[in-house]
Amino acid sequence: MPVWLTLPLGPTNCYLLKLEKGFLLVDCGRARDKDRLEKALGRLGLSLSDLTCLFLTHHHSDHCGLLSVLTAENPALTVIMSEKCAKFLKAGRHFIPAAENYASPAMKILMKTYARLGGGMDSSFTPYTPRPNDLLVKNDDRTILPRLGLEAKIICTPGHTEDSISLVAGDTAFVGDAARNILYLAGMPHYPIVLYSKEECRQSWNKLLSAGVRSILPAHGGPFASARLRPALQAKD
Questions:
Q1: What's the CATH superfamily of 4-234?
Q2: Could you tell me the residue ranges of all domains in the chain?
Q3: Which secondary-structure segment (H or E) carries 141?
Q4: Average pLDDT per run of 10 along the chain, which is 237 residues long?
Q5: Alpha-carbon dihedral 203, 225, 143, 196, rounded to 10 degrees
Q6: Do the Cβ atoms of 88 and 158 come closer than 8 Å?
Q7: Which among 32, 33, 15 is positioned nearest to 24, based on CA atoms?
């Protein structure tokens, strides 16, 4: 098995990484994606019981929708999340900062049209209260993942949401929605579809680049070179 595998669950890319014991899943898709996840694991000869850790990049429903299902069926599953994510999960709905907006006016029109046509995302999910075996991250962390048998670190990458974290393994970063690789025609390439702070988003990208990241694996769109973030970082707006 390669270092990581992509598990496409509807509109969200989830990723599977091998641990010393079992596997770590980065994000878990929507509440209705259970069959897709089980089939994707089954093609690898795996099942939900082979998952030992779930890494949540943030609390939005297309990333945490299956959380309660997975922990109910696999109580030994350790969930890794930020402390802010844990707070938002208890509420069972998206936390929407006052400053949150679409990356561009064109993106707003596109996503509003998509929602009217029956697309869009549910802003609620089954509330979840962290358990004793879950691991909560307050700041950047270099210790949690190595203890699980994965040479990787956790970097806080807010901008899209306040609770966003990324998993960095070698020169590869699994970033959730901290960056995107779709909908270029809507403008603001690589910025999250919605964000509450362009400045914090840029700071997060700078942190990833400073950490030696060369390849970005987003939740939406395919992998791309981190160097493609630099034009946005250098732009004056």
A1: Ribonuclease Z/Hydroxyacylglutathione hydrolase-like (3.60.15.10)
A2: 4-234
A3: none
A4: 85 96 96 97 97 98 97 97 98 97 95 86 94 98 96 98 98 98 93 97 98 98 97 80
A5: 30
A6: no
A7: 15
